[in-house]
tRNA(Ile)-lysidine synthase (Salinicoccus cyprini), 417 residues
Amino acid sequence: MELFTPWGREEKIALAISGGMDSMVLYNLLNTVYRESYGSLILLHVNHGQRAASVDEAAYIMEMAQRDGRVCEMVVLDIPPGTFSQESAREARYHFFDEMMTRHGASMLLTAHHLDDQYETILHAVLTGRHLPGEMGIPAERHMPGYTIVRPMIDIGRAEIAGYARAHDVHYFEDETNSGTDYTRNYIRHRLMPPIRESAHLQAHQLLRVKQDMSDVDDILKARAAAFLAHHEKNIDRHAFNREKRIVRFYILKAWLAQHGDAPRRRHIDAIMDAIWSDISNASFEMDHTRIIISYDRIVKKQGQDEKMEMLQMGGDGIYRFNGYTITSRLDAECYPMTVRTRAEGDRMYIPGVGTKKLSRIFIDNKIPADERGTMPVVVDKNRQIIALGEIYNIMDSKEKNRRLIIEKEFTNEPEK
């Protein structure tokens, strides 16, 4: 049985050993045929604490390691009853693996995933809508911080592994939960894969072609998204975005959000895309690190949480900053004090030649994005009259050049902090 062996003869490697047939066969091979292919080998065993038989299995593995002169590290996962899940168990396992790989200075962590696991993983991805984005299936190598995960048996089928176990009298333990169909992966293994193998018209190995094709498609879509974003930094033109195919739009948003460490689930990105495609004028979506704002014909990404100012007093000439605006005031002394605030319910302002108008109507008429309406500076004089509204209207702007009230919106290409 030929293993995939990317390690060197002097390297320290580790084996994740469960006690099941696959990992016990891999250990047997590493302990015999491939004994001279590495420098040293440590064993890492995780007891999930969900089965009574796990205690005996752990004891056997420890005794086996001692007999063979191997270092063996073990952990019993502390997952409260009723909260166990495949995802929580995997997270706890790899937390343990990370610690042990660092402690022992091992460069590669070997797992016993094989060809049938690959088929099941690909089928699972297809049937649960996870075929894109990203690498499909189980990679032979995956780089982690500080070490590499290696699957030496990824091209070897379960039947060949079982044949080796019989021929070499490899002792292993059966996990009774693997025979059930409660978990999706088990259902695929026991209900879907057998008929595929039995059919004269179906070929399981074609799933590997699906994996390769999807990998190529993934690369193409990533490149297309990168090319689009090269022309759109902080803002995206909504019409240009909607002209792209839906799967391209998905990759664009995913890459755009990843720039600041956000990795939302596909359904969340789908919701954003649906809103962008719709006739909604304004919408906002909160991520972990980023806020996506749909505003008329643009899509804006804001990083971090903005600190909103509600009110500012201007007691004299000077330069003031308010919610992303710079207010330069050079007026006669009798004009002060003035107040800068955000809008209030029922606000109206007088517009020369037009009359009074509600601020809410002014915002709509000027297509002011919804997220900006609550932060735009409203300048009120000492008689409580609104004399300026952001960059839209400013009755003091008509004064002589050296005595004016100037309101300018700040702009930067740098991410907001």
Q: What stands out?
A: Residues 101 and 291 are 37 Å apart (CA to CA). Residues 206-229 form the longest helix (24 residues).
